[in-house]
Amino acid sequence: MHLPTLLLAALLTPFIAADCECGYALTLDAHPPQPDERHVFTELTESNFARLHAGGDGDIRRNTDWAPQAFNVSAERGRGAYGEMFSARNIDMLAGDGGLRLTVGSELVRGMVPTAEVATRRLDMMWGTFRASMRLTGVEGTCAAFFWYFNDTQEIDMEFLSKDFNHANGSYPVNLVLQSLEAAAANYDASHTGSFVRAYLPFDPTAGFHEYRIDYFAGRVRFYADGVVLAQMDGPAVPVTAGHLIMRHWSNGNKLWSGGPPERDAAVVVKYVKAYFNSSSPKRQGDWERRCRNPKELSAVCDIPNVTAKNLAAQDWFFSENANMTNNQTVHGLNGVSGRRVEAVSGVMWALLLVSGCALVLL
Ligand SMILES: *[C@@H]1O[C@H](CO)[C@@H](O)[C@H](O)[C@H]1NC(C)=O
Ligand SMILES: *[C@@H]1O[C@H](CO)[C@@H](O)[C@H](O)[C@H]1NC(C)=O
Ligand SMILES: *[C@@H]1O[C@H](CO)[C@@H](O)[C@H](O)[C@H]1NC(C)=O
Ligand SMILES: *[C@@H]1O[C@H](CO)[C@@H](O)[C@H](O)[C@H]1NC(C)=O
Ligand SMILES: *[C@@H]1O[C@H](CO)[C@@H](O)[C@H](O)[C@H]1NC(C)=O
Ligand SMILES: *[C@@H]1O[C@H](CO)[C@@H](O)[C@H](O)[C@H]1NC(C)=O
Ligand SMILES: *[C@@H]1O[C@H](CO)[C@@H](O)[C@H](O)[C@H]1NC(C)=O
């Protein structure tokens, strides 16, 4: 084969190598003598917020995977000094290679702190690996939460309290929590239950983006930062239902938890969220059965790349940004925004390939 053909083959390979019609595989390190564990998930939701544009497709209200939330919480109900006012007004897209910005305002509005939340539209996430790349705020007095939720006693949380970050001694805690019936009995203070771990991050989470991750399996939950396990929990507090993902940035002045309100506006930026999961929906299970003809076929199951400190490049991998790797998935083209369908994107890729192919042949 002469060089141009080889180059063309190399260019084409990523697009024809995999179809992923049987799912996305996660491999976990095991300790010998057990072999590594491999789990296959049939569904995905990938949102590359950094690729969206302020004002245009970055308008969160147009997103087909995520919905901005609007609700008010009274001081009493939130057990805070102030109420919380969740509104789409506190959510916007950073220009350039930014991400989704969730802002907690410093100015009270009718006794409420302006706060921000987005939630996945899909509610059928039953087991999965959920990853969010975030840069946290260095402004004291907020709680940033990345969590999986069904109800107040079926919930998996990663919560970051900006007042607890200590730049002087490099101490950056994250609270890992399963909200359970036991936590409910303790007045939703999970820190008095067995399913609460305060872990310390090996980096400054306000200085840059890092990937935070929750793996939810039957009877077991693992929490990670940049691919390193922070904690594992099992037992009766592990949820047993399907649920959805929420990104929330809030404050209510409770000195024992969020503190605040912040002295100036505080922003958390979300670069992406990637979720690979199984569905509790019989319709989606049926779709998978029709779609997955032979799981043993080479390209039928695709490996989810591991994000680690040594392999940060995996952060930039999105199945949904490649042709034919998300057929029959509900991701609506680039970044889950309606109006930009995946067919159009693959059309552009094909045009590019044809152009580069022609150029190579001409060489
Ligand atoms: C994508 O799938 C369609 C339908 O099966 C097929 O016609 C097309 O050739 C595939 N494209 C690539 C790049 O594999
Ligand atoms: C997800 O569903 C597929 C298809 O039913 C199944 O083969 C796989 O084991 C499930 N994965 C998990 C982690 O339960
Ligand atoms: C929250 O309260 C503000 C101020 O009273 C009000 O304008 C807004 O409509 C409320 N939001 C919702 C979702 O009810
Ligand atoms: C949450 O859902 C579980 C499972 O359906 C149920 O047992 C539990 O009582 C619910 N908790 C609340 C607070 O409603
Ligand atoms: C850093 O200081 C805080 C008090 O602000 C303390 O709680 C924490 O234990 C210290 N961490 C380290 C690693 O010294
Ligand atoms: C991810 O890491 C696991 C455990 O170290 C390994 O077995 C697996 O092959 C890796 N997956 C990929 C896609 O590199
Ligand atoms: C998946 O394929 C089935 C047909 O097998 C179809 O009914 C369904 O609408 C498709 N779903 C998506 C999200 O493309």
TrEMBL record:
<feature type="domain" description="GH16">
    <location>
        <begin position="27"/>
        <end position="281"/>
    </location>
</feature>
<dbReference type="InterPro" id="IPR000757">
    <property type="entry name" value="Beta-glucanase-like"/>
</dbReference>
<dbReference type="Pfam" id="PF00722">
    <property type="entry name" value="Glyco_hydro_16"/>
</dbReference>
<protein>
    <submittedName>
        <fullName>Glycoside hydrolase, family 16</fullName>
    </submittedName>
</protein>
<dbReference type="GO" id="GO:0005975">
    <property type="term" value="P:carbohydrate metabolic process"/>
</dbReference>
<keyword id="KW-0732">Signal</keyword>
<keyword id="KW-0378">Hydrolase</keyword>
<feature type="signal peptide">
    <location>
        <begin position="1"/>
        <end position="18"/>
    </location>
</feature>
<dbReference type="InterPro" id="IPR013320">
    <property type="entry name" value="ConA-like_dom_sf"/>
</dbReference>
<dbReference type="GO" id="GO:0004553">
    <property type="term" value="F:hydrolase activity, hydrolyzing O-glycosyl compounds"/>
</dbReference>
